[in-house]
Amino acid sequence: MRSPLCRLLLAWQALALCASAYAAAIPLGVAPITARIEAGTDYGAVTVSNRGETPTGIDVEIVRMQWAQGKENYAPTEDFVVTPPSFRLQPGKNRLIRFRFNGRHGESEAVYRLFIRQLPEADNASQVSLVLNIGVPIFVSPIQAAPAIGLSRNATGAELLNTGNVTLTLLHLEGRDCPGTPFRLQTRLFPGQSVALDAGSPGACASAVQTDRGLVPLTAR
Asked: Coil, strand or helix: which one is 36?
């Protein structure tokens, strides 16, 4: 049986190994962190930056995303063409990833994720290594956007539901009879997704919510 000191030394060694592996991981930068494909403009792009000191392989994939039971679900899709689908990025260099939407704009917004995956290096197969997997959301706008938010009240607070056909970032609640400054939210809701407000929120007096698409009136549910 190992002594407490021995176990402590092993724990410190494991922590040092993890810290060393983290330091060796190649930091990647991606901009922008979201993309929107508007109807009539079916092209988009993001830039990947290698801010590390060694080259790294990159693999790119776009999948369809759906929100169900509180989590994101992914499915393969052929709605996009990506260029390039894989490449090697030298340290200090940038690479533009272009993508073209070849699907159809529907009545409701479609959401995808562009995954940018760092590939493990073959010569480090025997070492502990950390690789990055960055997911950039892509929002494909419907033929005509119709933002809408429903508000339902209950004994413990209130609930906001995105009843429209586009994703909305909720910034703050507003209402003529609400006391003080606007109640900040900073919440993103996909169509059909809801968020609960506690009893301390101004759900009872709010009449509208400020969003990234402008002021949206609240509809009682």
From this structure: strand
